[in-house]
Amino acid sequence: MWTPLSRDFYSRDSAQVARDLLGRILVHESSEGLTSGIIVEAEAYYGEDDPASHAYRGMTERNRVMYGEPGHAYVFLLYGVNHLLNVVTMPRGIPGAVLLRALQPLEGVELMRRRRGVSDALLLASGPGRLSKAMGIDLNHNGVDMTKPPLYISRERILKDFEVVVTPRIGVRDMRPLRFYVKGNLYVSRPKGGAPRA
Questions:
Q1: Domain boundaries, the chain
Q2: Which of 47, 107, 112, 133 has the highest CB neighbour count under 10 A?
Q3: What confidence score (pLDDT) does residue 81 get?
Q4: 34: buried, middle or exposed (CB in 10 Å: 19+, 13-18, 0-12)?
Q5: Tens digits of residue pLDDT in 64-117
Q6: Tell me: the pLDDT tens digits for 26-59?
Q7: CATH topology for 7-182?
C-alpha cells in the first residue's frame, strides 16, 4: 500500500531527517495486524558532541546500531518501562538517530486501543512510549531494517501544507532546537506540566 523510504533518505543530517519525516506514515505489519500512524513529532540526536545522545560516550553494545547503516531501528527501554523507537540517521559510522515522539493514528486503531488499554485516540500514540506500545514495538525490533516491511516509514506524505514548530528536545538539558512537530496537531505530545501545544 505504501512505499518505504530509501536508505539514502536516512543517510543525512539527523535534524533534516527529523523535519522531513513529519507528515509521513509509520507502518508496522505484525502478526496481530497492521497498524499505522502519521508522524507528527520527532527529535534529532547526534553522536559524541551531543550530551543527550546514547552515543555521547562512544560506541557500546547498547548503542552499536546507531553507528551502523542508516535506516535501521534503534529501540531501547527507558527506565525499564517504555520502549522508544528511533530510526538511525547519518552516514554509516557516524552515530545519529531520530526519535519518533508522536503519531496521529491512521490504521489499526482498535488494535492500538487494545495494546494501550485506552480508548481516547488522542492518548494512543502522543508520546514515544505510547507510540511504541500502540504500534507493537519492543526490543525485538532493535536493529530491524526500516527500509522494507514489516516496519517502515512511507515515502508518501499524508499531511501537506503544514507549519513546522521547532523547539528544544523534551526531558534533556541540551537546549539546541532539535524537536520538530506539526503546529496545531492535537496528537503531539505534551511536555510535563501539560503545557499547551503551539
A1: 7-182
A2: 112
A3: 81
A4: middle
A5: 999 999 999 999 998 778 999 999 999 999 999 999 999 999 999 999 999 999
A6: 999 999 999 999 999 999 999 989 999 998 988 8
A7: 3-methyladenine DNA Glycosylase; Chain A (3.10.300)
